[in-house]
Specification:
It is a single chain. By secondary structure, the chain is mainly α. The protein has one domain: Orthogonal Bundle (Arc Repressor Mutant, subunit A), CATH 1.10.10. It has seven helices and three strands; from the N terminus they run ααααβααββα. It has helices spanning about 20, 25-30, 30-45, 50-65, 75-85, 95-105, 130-155; strands at about 75, 110-115, 125-130. Strands 1-3-2 form a three-stranded antiparallel sheet. The protein starts with 18 loop residues before the first helix and ends in a 5-residue tail after the last helix.
């Protein structure tokens, strides 16, 4: 154990047939065991690199897509917008943001184009594609349902 405390991994279970889970959209319940495991283990118990990486990827993609909903933006502006909207609680470094942009572009969720302006370095501006807008709407719906389920389960409405 190495001083980390007892191994509590066996105490977390997920029952997909539970009545409260049946009310959630299937797009969410397919990933719910993973999301719950990742949150509990990564945030509060032991590091789970592969799960944390996947959760961060899904969250990061949602955040990036959301910043492109209003208008095209370049990478640095996307990072600034995320930090501003999250009041500094979430931030991206270029080393982690640009691979996400390249993956989203490769999957057809965003499209990029190079823009050159006098006196400035060339920048790649990204915009949402129709498929990207559809995926953003799906992810928002799934995250909203998940957040609501956590609020109910944790009694956050009464806190």
């Amino acid at each position: 154990m190495g001083g980390r405390g007892p191994d509590l991994s066996a105490t977390v279970t997920f029952d997909p047939s539970a009545p409260s889970v049946a009310l959630l959209p299937s797009a969410l319940t397919d990933d719910l065991p993973f999301i719950v495991d990742t949150y509990i283990y990564d945030s509060h118990m032991t590091p789970v690199d592969r799960d944390a990486s996947a959760l961060k990827k899904g969250t990061a993609e949602l955040l990036v897509l959301a910043q492109l909903e209003e208008r095209p933006r370049h990478g640095y502006e996307i990072a600034q917008q995320i930090a501003a909207r999250a009041a500094g609680a979430v931030s991206f470094h270029a080393a982690s943001l640009y691979p996400i942009l390249y993956k989203l572009e490769g999957r057809g969720l965003i499209a990029g184009r190079w823009v050159e302006k006098a006196g400035q370095q060339r920048r790649r501006y990204y915009r949402l594609t129709p498929e990207g807008r559809r995926v953003l709407a799906e992810r928002r719906k799934s995250w909203s349902a998940f957040i609501e389920a956590v609020k109910l389960a944790a009694g956050l409405d009464y806190a």
